[in-house]
Design the sequence.
């Protein structure tokens, strides 16, 4: 016999033998082939994951004989089930009288027939695979017991293959422990980008690799969703074949309604619909949101039944819904009862805030439009998120407040917004948020501590009124700062810098030393910056050994995010570059300069003292390396910064001294780092797959401007193409792979 007998069961297979069936699931077939000596193969996944399609491909690939039984509700009778099994076995081992034996067995059909079925398989010409599809429809205990006992009658080399939407009430736990079951779940059945690309190709839909990756991410590799997306795209004109899919897509909604939701009790549908406001679900959270009890048991049941519900931890405390399923349910909830959706989301924010989950609480508060709660949560959470270097998250939060006109009157939030704009190289945003601080009423600094302290600290950092006003603001911030914390360290740092720029070196050294001590104890970044500032003072005094020690302390205590993602880290890189030059280590100096260069675009007139100071330190090192063009670029940028913030004390004199040194140098060496700030920004995006037009959208520039800047980079690098420029930049350390 051959496995062609499976083709006689076309009614169940036909709906699945579309584009999915034409994509070979090679990795899964290899997995099943490797399991051929394991008595049971269990394929367990929600609808639409291609369980039946995989079984059909396996039947066509495996040399063994296949007998196939698709379970329906009528099989919940042992006599009916065993007779249908006998019919499937007859296809494998005809002429054994199995149907007659089933008819004659009467009430003892299980005990009488199972041994005969096993014997028939043993005497067949080839080992066999008995397929039971849709096992989730079996609920009768005697029927389930018969399936369990059937495993013991299988001859060596034969297998029982079961496919089910959920974990059936069979002793799979015991079989796992005995090593007698091979399992394929939704994670394995999900299509990877290669398989998804093949599926799209069958539908004559050609997508770039990045677009396929995004579609797989959106669908989580769910085969039926990929099939529907391909089908929708195939129906459009070729020029309009953008492939997108959302949970409320009509065809996907119809599929889920028919295959899943219509088969669930209404109480479960209601539970899932209301829980769709949640990114992640736990029993206590769902209870709080729904005003109910017993949610933990429901979640466990849904996960075991594979109702598009996935456990997120081994203890099964947290779960999530499939992205598209959740989108469908959420859209239905918002259409039917938008007020309820908002109230449920508000409850989720309240529960998360009370249970030590500030970031989910912020997301839910924003989703509910609860600006007051969101503002307080963001003020509390932002410092830790900033310290972790998660700028995208911060910018998303603050962008929501701006987009929705919820900035005014929130001084604490505005202070943080200005700091984030300053530290991430967005001076206009920093100014805009700082303006909101000034307009906030007294006492509006929610979550910001003693009134006036954070505002004074921000004013000192932005240095709009010059060095002397910076010192006055920093002094006030120090008086109002809580003892021993990050704010005290920052106030001491800015007060020390104000004295340094005013030429009062002894006072500067004292305050910077205090800032370093407090900052190191508190784990605050201000302490590391104070050590870098003290190293600059030591170099000015010719105390290079002390400068090395101070820079070493700063590097040892600095967090990776601070050194690699924030403007402040550039100062330490500039300091270590100068120290490397003093040691005669030009290679190390260039490496440190490259790190500073990557951060240079973040150094704007939002933090003018730091932006100018870093460029002056870099110019000194470039001069020592005889890279005159790079040094001149630094000084041009210093001039531009000082045109916006002219009252920066001694920094103006230092720039003049460096300019005089530069004028004495020969200008015949073309430095690879002579890029402008705008060109450095562009260079970081040239290494991506984006076109000039797409880069222009991100940088708010025209395509023509982007192209002009790119041509300037090519000329400075001595190359003629984008790929050569990227390669050259990577060799210099200006871009990382």
Sequence:
């Amino acid at each position: 016999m051959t496995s062609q007998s499976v083709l006689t069961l076309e009614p169940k297979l036909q709906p699945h033998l579309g584009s999915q069936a034409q994509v070979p699931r090679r990795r899964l077939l290899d997995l099943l082939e490797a399991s051929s000596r394991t008595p049971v193969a269990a394929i367990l996944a929600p609808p639409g994951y291609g369980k039946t399609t995989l079984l059909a491909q396996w039947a066509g690939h495996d040399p063994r004989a296949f007998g196939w039984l698709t379970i329906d509700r009528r099989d919940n009778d042992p006599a009916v089930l065993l007779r249908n099994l006998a019919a499937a076995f007859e296809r494998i081992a005809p002429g054994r009288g199995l149907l007659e034996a089933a008819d004659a067995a009467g009430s003892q059909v299980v005990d009488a027939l199972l041994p005969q079925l096993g014997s028939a398989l043993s005497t067949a010409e080839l080992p066999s695979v008995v397929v039971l599809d849709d096992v989730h429809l079996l609920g009768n205990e005697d029927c389930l017991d018969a399936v369990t006992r059937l495993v013991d009658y299988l001859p060596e080399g034969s297998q029982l293959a079961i496919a089910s939407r959920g974990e059936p009430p069979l002793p799979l736990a015991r079989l796992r422990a005995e090593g007698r079951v091979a399992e394929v779940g939704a994670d394995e059945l999900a299509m990877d980008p290669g398989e998804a690309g093949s599926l799209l190709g069958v539908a004559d839909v050609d997508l770039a690799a990045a677009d396929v990756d995004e579609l797989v991410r959106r669908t989580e590799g769910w085969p039926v969703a990929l099939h529907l997306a391909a089908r929708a795209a195939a129906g459009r004109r070729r020029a309009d074949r953008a492939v997108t899919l959302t949970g409320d897509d009509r065809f996907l909604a119809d599929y889920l309604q028919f295959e899943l939701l219509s088969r669930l009790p209404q109480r479960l549908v209601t539970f899932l619909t209301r829980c769709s406001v949640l990114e992640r679900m736990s029993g206590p959270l769902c209870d709080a949101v729904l005003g109910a009890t017993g949610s933990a048991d429901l979640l466990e049941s849904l996960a075991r039944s594979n109702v598009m519900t996935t456990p997120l931890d081994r203890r099964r405390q947290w779960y999530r819904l499939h992205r598209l399923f959740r989108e469908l349910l959420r859209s239905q909830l918002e259409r039917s009862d938008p007020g309820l959706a908002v109230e449920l989301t508000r409850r989720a924010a309240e529960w998360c805030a009370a249970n030590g989950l500030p970031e989910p609480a912020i997301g839910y508060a924003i989703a509910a439009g609860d600006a007051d709660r969101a503002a307080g949560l963001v003020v509390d959470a932002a410092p830790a998120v900033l310290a972790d270097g998660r700028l995208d998250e911060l910018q998303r939060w603050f962008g929501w407040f701006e987009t929705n006109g919820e900035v005014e009157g929130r001084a604490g939030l505005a202070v943080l917004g200005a700091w984030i704009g300053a530290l991430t190289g967005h001076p206009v945003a920093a100014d805009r948020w700082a303006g909101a601080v000034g307009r906030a009423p007294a006492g509006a600094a929610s979550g910001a501590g003693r009134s006036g302290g954070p505002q004074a600290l921000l004013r000192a950092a932005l240095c709009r009124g010059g060095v002397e006003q910076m010192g006055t603001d920093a002094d006030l911030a120090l008086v109002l700062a809580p003892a021993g914390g990050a704010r005290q360290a920052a106030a001491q740092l800015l007060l020390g810098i104000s004295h340094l720029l005013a030429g009062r070196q002894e006072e500067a050294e004292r305050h910077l030393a205090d800032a370093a001590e407090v900052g190191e104890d508190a784990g605050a970044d201000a302490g590391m910056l104070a050590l870098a500032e003290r190293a600059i003072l030591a170099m000015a005094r010719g105390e290079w050994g002390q400068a090395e020690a101070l820079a070493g302390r700063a590097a040892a205590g600095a967090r990776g995010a601070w050194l690699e993602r924030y403007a402040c880290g550039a100062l330490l890189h500039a300091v270590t570059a100068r120290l490397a030059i003093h040691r005669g280590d030009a290679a190390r100096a260039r490496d440190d300069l490259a790190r500073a260069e990557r951060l240079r675009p973040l150094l704007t007139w939002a933090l003018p003292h730091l932006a100018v100071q870093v460029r002056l330190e870099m110019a000194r090192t470039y001069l020592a390396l005889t890279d005159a063009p790079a040094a001149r670029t630094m000084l041009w940028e210093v001039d531009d910064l000082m045109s916006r913030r002219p009252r920066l004390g001694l920094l103006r004199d230092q720039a003049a001294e460096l300019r005089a040194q530069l004028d004495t140098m020969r200008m015949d060496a073309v430095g690879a780092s002579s890029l402008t700030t705008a060109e450095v920004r562009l260079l970081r995006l040239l290494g991506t797959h984006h076109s000039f037009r797409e880069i222009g959208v991100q940088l708010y520039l025209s395509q023509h401007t982007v192209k002009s800047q790119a041509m300037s980079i090519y000329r400075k690098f001595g190359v003629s193409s984008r790929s050569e420029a990227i390669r050259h930049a990577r060799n210099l350390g200006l871009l990382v792979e």
